[in-house]
Specification:
The complex is a heterodimer of chains A (about 290) and B (about 150). By secondary structure, chain A is α+β, with helices and mostly antiparallel strands. Chain A has two domains: about 1-115, ATP12-like (2-Layer Sandwich); about 120-285, ATP12-like fold. Helix content of chain A is about 65%, strand content about 5%. In chain A, the strands form two sheets. In chain A, strands 2, 3, 4 and 5 form a four-stranded antiparallel β-sheet that branches. A two-stranded antiparallel sheet of chain A has the order 1-6. In chain A, helix 4 packs across helix 8, helix 6 (about 145-165) crosses helix 9 (about 215-220) and helix 8 (about 200-210) packs antiparallel against helix 12. With about 150 residues, chain B is mostly helical. Helices cover about 50% and strands about 0% of the residues of chain B. Chain B has helices at about 35-45, 50-65, 75-85, 95-125, 130-140. The longest helix of chain B is centred in the C-terminal third of the chain and has 30 residues, at about 95-125. The radius of gyration of chain B is 25 Å and the shape is elongated. The two termini of chain B are about 45 Å apart. The chains are: A alpha+beta (about 290), B mainly alpha (about 150). At the A-B interface, helix 3, helix 6, helix 10, helix 12 and helix 13 of A face helix 2, helix 3 and helix 4 of B. Chain A: It comes from Anabas testudineus (Climbing perch). Chain A: Plays a role in the assembly of the F1 component of the mitochondrial ATP synthase (ATPase). Chain A: It is a peripheral membrane protein.
Chain lengths: ~290, ~150
Amino acid sequence: MFKSLVRFYSQFGNALSLSKVCPRSQHSQFALKYSTATAAERRRFYQDVSISQGEGGLYEINLDRRKLKTPGGKLFTVPNEALAIAVATEWDAQRDTLKFYTMHLTTLCNTALDNPTQRNKDQMINAALKFLETDTICYRVEEPLALVELQKNEWDPVLHWIENRYNVTIGSSSSILGPDIPEATKETFRQHLNSYNLWALTGLEYVITQLKSVVLSMGMIDRHLSVQEAVLLSRLEEEYQIRRWGNVEWAHDYDMYELRARTAAGALFVHLSSESSTVKRKLLQD
Amino acid sequence: MKLHLVSSLWRSAPLWTMNTNSSTVRCCIEQPGCKSRTIKHLSDMASLPSSLRVCRGILKELRTLQGPGYKQSLAYSYVMDQFRKNKVTGARYCRAQQEAHHASHTYLCLLESTRNHMALHNLYHGKGERSPEEVASLVGLRLPTQPGGKGWEK
């Protein structure tokens, strides 16, 4: 058992010894671990991936006989079976080397567990709401005319939908300052975001930063938009330019698939981590 | 020039999206006295492919990821279990089913996009710096092979 632990921690050996040599604060040691996790590709060191239910009903991931840990050294636990299976599938999908940049759900769980930026709920909500002031779909162009029309046709319905759904005013603008969003609107969204738990909020903020839009993100989380639609609307101007000038596979498609994967992972993460109460209710009914 | 990328997707907001945060009811509710409306709502879901297609799509992705033994995997049994559990008659209004459908579609999108992204990544990126010849051929050009001239033109 001890041997296996040593082997598992060998990946952090570099980071740990470095931090011994140069005296750093706790925070920078943390950041170093995160950076090494993405920079170097490790070989796949396990055969089987399985899940097990540990203390408090939380699910754990087992790589052979070893328990998966977060980069911060905590035990990797997730609140429900679906998320555990999705994460296990990600680990199982790795071939010769571990490609952490394709394991979006694992990354999100790690972020939620370790909370590397040490923020609380209010700070996260504020960070997410900052995107409302500069929301992608509130900024309109004045020329070319075709793009103006496209933005009006595609973005206005979502804007109207969210204004009706939350009973708020957002509006759009073509000035560089953007629309003037009333304080009441922000307060409504603040209260709504406050109803999510820390995990769901982590996913939600991730989606918002990917799509650069609170409106599109909420539309997708509320199941008004599918992931593909939300990503398309977020990249509307780029799609317009592609139609005009042609598609470049290694840039446009590459970006689009990455954005789709990240957005889908974020949306799934939000749904799965705010789901636990639903499942309990169902057991009671049965 | 008429520009409509996704125009057919937008209709008035369907009822089932209005109240999703309080969605804890698992059983199916008949919409009172508006059958035509229910059908309209179901047609709103036309923007998402049918659940059977989504299910088959996810299984296909799992097979690509895990090879022929994918039926023994955790994910396979979980996905099949979920799709069987949420199989409800189509003429009924069921929020839990809509949620499950959206979630399954999102998961399919995640698997597909990750695979496509990796395929493009392996094809174009992640191999370090390209040689000048390769860079030139990427944009349809060739490098000269001798000083003072191209060397390959007639």
